[in-house]
Write a structure and sequence with these properties.
Elements: E1 2-4, E2 13-16, H1 21-26, E3 30-33, E4 37-38, E5 41-42, E6 49-51, E7 60-63, E8 73-77, E9 81-82, E10 85-89, E11 96-103, E12 106-109, E13 112-113, E14 116-117, E15 120-121, E16 128-135, E17 138-151, E18 155-158, E19 161-162, E20 168-172, E21 177-182, E22 185-186, E23 190-197, E24 200-207, E25 211-216, E26 226-233, E27 239-254, E28 261-266, E29 269-279, E30 287-290, E31 300-307, E32 310-320, E33 329-335, E34 338-345, H2 347-413, H3 417-423
């Protein structure tokens, strides 16, 4: 509303009203001021007139203004909230301002009050947030587009069958096998399909897509039994994984990658260790040994052991006992009536082993005798050395005694007999011996 006061003749004319220039020119109210005059007369000034222009919204303003990305979208993570945001419109009388959000199935009312969008939880189906201003029959709206980011758990498929909550699947050997990994997310995640091996993961396929696939071209093999990992990685390096155990059902057969062993326990006993590939593990009761006469034997199969923790590799341990001349020869191991392998039991195996033992005993004996001679020689040599030292000491002692006696004899040659006796304490000479008749 505006007023015009103290009107004069110069104020006569049309007046338009509005909040802006354009509105005053086209949408505002109009006032005509007329001044009537006669010659040498002038009319009195009219009273002041109040004007209340009516106008609808021309633009809407968001406060605060949403921060849009380079694609002019407002980025938000699924589950986060948007708001509060105030949507203002200049209207007279005031406009009715409401908020709505757009999903794939249409528009829905958002929580708002007096033009303020309250906290609104966002899911991946929300594409737009819209402010709507109505004035009489006119309406103006303003929106911003959402970029809702989300990242789902991986989903595994085996031969196009969704594994859902399953963690194990069995596939018949030589049948087609294709693994697929699907990860839904925005932005598009990196999807990998890998195989667990030696404590790590060997990547089989990788794609910057929602899908990653891997096909076993030759069909499923027993060695394909393993844990496979489906994983997805988002742009913020968050990773989700799901593992599934794929077991290949394969019939028992000889494992050619591992050597079969025959251990000679005694003359009449052999222990046979046979490597087998099979899944599931062979059943002991289904194992049968045939002797050289192709008749079942009483050979005992004591155990079926898993090899190095690999579920499809096993060792069958059997004991062949009571061997006689007529029982040496070819033995056959059957599983459910099918031959797994042939084992030749020969006497030469034991004789050769006995020959080795004889050689070892002979060599040990020779070595023992040699050491005995060496010890006797050393003792004898030590004894000779000792005797030599004793003889040498005796000779030295004899030489010393001889030298002493010679010196004493020399001294006696220079001494009077009488003096000698005197020296011996004899005062009288002995009378010569006279024989009395």
């Amino acid at each position: 509303m505006f007023e015009i006061r103290n009107i004069t003749l110069d104020d006569a004319g049309y007046y338009n009203g509005g909040i802006i220039y354009g509105g005053a020119g086209f949408d505002g109210g109009v006032l005509l001021i007329v001044s009537a005059t006669e010659e040498d007369l002038e009319s009195d000034q009219s009273d002041a007139v109040q004007i209340n222009p009516l106008y609808g919204p021309e633009q809407l303003i968001f406060t605060p203004k949403p921060d849009l990305n380079k694609y002019d979208k407002f980025t938000v993570k699924e589950g986060d909230v948007v708001g509060p945001i105030f949507c203002s419109a200049d209207c007279n009388p005031p406009c009715n301002v409401t908020w709505k959000y757009k999903e794939s199935n249409g528009l829905k009312d958002a929580l708002s009050q007096n033009g303020i969008l309250l906290l609104q939880s966002i899911n991946r189906n929300v594409t737009q947030i819209i402010c709507l201003s109505r004035w009489k029959t006119e309406s103006v709206e303003k929106d911003f587009t959402l970029d809702v980011q989300y990242f789902d758990d991986p989903i595994s498929y085996v031969n196009d069958e969704w594994m859902s909550d399953r963690i194990t699947v069995d596939i018949q050997e030589r049948k087609p096998l294709q693994l697929s990994c699907f990860v839904n997310g925005n932005p598009t995640p990196t999807v990998r399909l890998g195989k667990s091996q030696n404590g790590g993961t060997v990547i089989l396929s990788e794609a910057r897509d929602h899908w990653s696939n891997y096909s076993f071209g030759t069909g499923a093999q027993c060695s394909d039994t393993e844990t496979y990992v489906c994983s997805g990685q988002s742009t913020d390096l968050k990773t989700n994984t799901k593992a599934i155990d794929v077991n290949i059902l394969c019939e028992p057969r000889l494992d050619k990658e591992v050597e079969m062993k025959t251990i000679t326990e005694s003359v009449k006993t052999r222990i046979v260790i046979i490597p087998i590939v099979a899944y599931p593990s062979p059943v002991l009761s289904k194992l049968v040994w045939l002797g050289p006469d192709d008749l079942p034997t009483n050979i005992t199969t004591t155990a079926v052991l898993q090899l190095n923790g690999v579920i499809y590799k096993h060792r069958i341990i059997s004991i062949i006992s009571g061997l006689e001349d007529e029982t040496f020869g070819e033995y056959k191991l059957l599983y459910e009536g099918k031959v797994l392998t042939n084992v030749f039991i020969r006497r030469e195996e034991y004789e050769m082993s006995r020959g080795h033992k004889v050689v070892i005993v002979v060599l040990s004996t020779i070595l023992g005798i040699t050491w005995l001679f060496i010890i006797i020689y050393l003792l004898f040599k030590k004894q000779l050395l000792l005797l030599h030292k004793i003889d040498k000491r005796k000779e030295e002692s004899h030489q010393l005694q001889t030298q002493g006696m010679a010196q004493h004899y020399d001294d006696l040659q220079d001494t009077d007999v009488d003096n000698t006796y005197t020296a011996l304490g004899r005062t009288d000479q002995e009378s010569p011996y006279e024989e009395t008749l």
